[in-house]
Design a protein that fits this description.
Length: 552
């Protein structure tokens, strides 16, 4: 299967249209269960379903697959909608819920009973498991399988009316207890759940199974292409069986594609919840989480996620994608779109001794090296500036392209300076570097022909602003968390968050709005935190460093 953008479903639908096998609109749906926050894997499904509708001029709906009331919550319903919108997609019409169709689904269940295609089974769940058999052993018919229609209708009514405790009775489709495909061995259609539902309240104490609800909801909504992940392939015969045996208004078809697996991360809601419960991250939207809300806070753009999904493509196999592909997608986007700025993360004071104390020269710097539409910046150049500790050494060989005592370096967007002296603290550590600047070197090399070794970034000590910068990195240190150790919590990257409390940023940056993205020159891409940053009290998160340090 060719990688990089190949989408077999886009091709398949194009072929169906070309051959005249598909008429009318392409209608898809994104069907999350509201039992957690969406993660990067869901983004693939969102981009696929909404993307196909966009591509073929059709429709995509958002439908909450809400048949498990105990696990579902309004908080998840809200966050899922916000995440889909954030990715830049909008669903057709109102948000749908599978629970909108509970009355119709109930009628469909009655229809199956009346046609002799369903029965109320009163085996205990242990008994039912034995009767079911396994992959090598055909199942055995339940003694309740041959109940009369009247008997079944009465028993189903008793289920609906609350006459059974949970597990005492279930409505099953009467298909084939010897089927090779286990999904066809009289699957459950309705089970008893004495639980209030977030949409329907106390109206029901029986709830349809996923298999019974899904295809029928697709049919009710006029979905033409019901796209799900590969683990549902074996459910397709059942999906079709229901469509064939019910008076549904349309005949949707299920198609399967391979799930997204990303290395260095986990994408199961259950395991993500464990990270939160263990206090390893700060919640669903911690910037290290692979949730869409976490990725958003980390500073990823919706465009970069969509580009990533396009790059990964859609195929019928489950492959593992390197997290570097995701990181490169946001690098590409921000390299082109993020304005440039300077931030000193680990400051060392540089005193320019041939500048008077009160001197302030406003230097102009481009907002972006090749984007004239991004506004230019103004950098106050003053006697005291901060540089990175790592950008100064008392002595170093020629490979060190930064500031060395007695040597020259260019301050980015400013002048060439030559280090003359250091000031030490009692422990002998350098706490200040003194230098002289050459006033003729703005955009020019020194007249004496001795070139600077390199270019370093800096921020005015008197006019710069303090900032809190959180350098985030991958949450896990190994490609397949838990594989070797047995527990993914044993594979955490201890350096997934480094807080730099005493950073200095150029003055204009302190006032940006939350979620403004920027390249800190020579360091990486950063975003003003969606929640913790306030104009005037800057807090930045690192999206990614400029270069990948993980790939060998
Ligand atoms: P989880 O296992 O994390 O609970 P799920 O599949 O149960 O995920 P749903 O809410 O049912 O989550 O997912 C909504 C849609 O997103 C489904 O169509 C599902 O197949 C798809 N989806 C979920 N995870 C992935 C993934 N890793 N790659 C592609 N699609 C996914
Ligand atoms: Mg699911
Ligand atoms: Mg799930």
């Amino acid at each position: 299967e060719p990688r990089g953008g190949h989408n077999f479903l886009r091709q398949l639908i194009a072929d169906q249209i070309a051959r005249g096998e598909h008429h009318g609109e392409v209608v898809t749906r994104f069907p999350p269960e509201p039992n957690g926050y969406l993660h990067i894997g869901h983004a693939k499904s969102i981009c696929l379903n909404f993307g196909l509708a966009e591509h073929f001029g059709g429709k995509c709906r958002l439908r909450f697959d809400d048949t498990n009331p105990e696990k579902e919550e309004q908080e998840y319903i809200d966050s899922i909608q916000a995440d889909v919108h954030w990715l830049g997609f909008d669903w057709e019409g109102a948000v749908r819920f599978t629970s909108d169709y509970f009355d119709t689904l109930y009628d469909y269940a009655l229809h199956l009973i009346e046609q002799g295609h369903a029965y109320v089974d009163e085996l205990s769940s242990e008994q039912a498991r034995e009767y079911r058999g396994d992959w090598n052993t055909p199942g055995t018919d339940s003694p309740y399988r041959e109940r009369s229609v009247e008997d079944n209708l009465a028993a189903f009514e008793k289920m609906r009316a609350g006459g059974f405790a949970e597990g005492e009775a279930a409505l099953r489709a009467k298909i084939d207890m010897a089927a090779g495909n286990m999904n066809l061995r009289d699957p459950i259609i309705y089970r008893v759940r004495h639980a209030a539902h977030h949409q329907t309240g106390d109206a029901w104490c029986i709830y349809p199974s996923y298999d019974f609800a899904h295809g029928q909801s697709d049919a009710i909504e006029g979905v033409t292409h019901s796209i799900c992940t590969l683990e549902f392939e074996d459910h397709r015969p059942l999906y079709n069986w229901f469509i064939e045996h019910l008076p549904v208004p349309a005949r949707p078809v299920q198609y399967e594609f391979g799930r997204l697996h990303l290395n260095y991360t986990i994408t199961s809601k259950r395991r993500l919840r464990r990270l939160i419960d263990a206090g390893i991250v700060d919640g669903w939207d911690d910037p290290r989480m692979p949730t869409l809300s976490g990725i958003r806070r980390r500073g990823y753009t919706p465009a970069s996620i969509r580009a990533f999904c396009e790059t990964v493509g859609v195929s019928r196999s489950d492959g593992v994608v390197d997290t570097a592909v995701l990181e490169n997608a946001v690098r590409d986007d921000l390299n082109h779109n993020a304005p440039r700025a300077m931030c000193v993360m680990d400051p060392l004071k540089l005193v320019i001794t041939n500048l008077p104390e009160e001197a302030v020269e406003m230097l102009a710097a481009p907002g972006h090296p090749n984007r004239d539409d991004l506004p230019a910046r103004t950098l106050p150049f003053t006697r005291e500036v901060f540089i990175e500790k790592a950008d100064f050494r008392e002595s170093a060989n020629k490979k060190y392209k930064r500031l060395v005592l007695g040597k020259r370096v260019r301050l980015r967007n400013a002048y060439v300076v030559e280090a003359t002296d250091v000031v030490r603290d009692d422990a002998g550590e350098v706490i200040e570097v003194h230098c002289r600047y050459d006033p003729d070197t703005l955009g020019d090399n020194p007249a004496d022909g001795v070139k600077p070794r390199g270019v370093i970034h800096w921020v005015s000590a008197s006019h710069g602003r303090r900032a809190l910068v959180r350098a985030y990195d991958r949450l896990f240190a190994t490609p397949n968390p838990g594989r070797e150790t047995g527990d993914f919590l044993d594979d955490l990257n201890p350096a997934s968050l480094e807080v730099h409390a005493g950073c200095w940023i150029e003055p204009g940056l302190a006032e940006v709005e939350a979620e403004q993205r920027v390249q800190f020159e020579r360091i990486g891409y950063f975003v003003a935190d969606r929640f913790d940053h306030l104009p005037g009290a800057p807090v930045f998160n690192r999206v990614v460093p400029l270069r990948d340090s993980w790939s060998k």
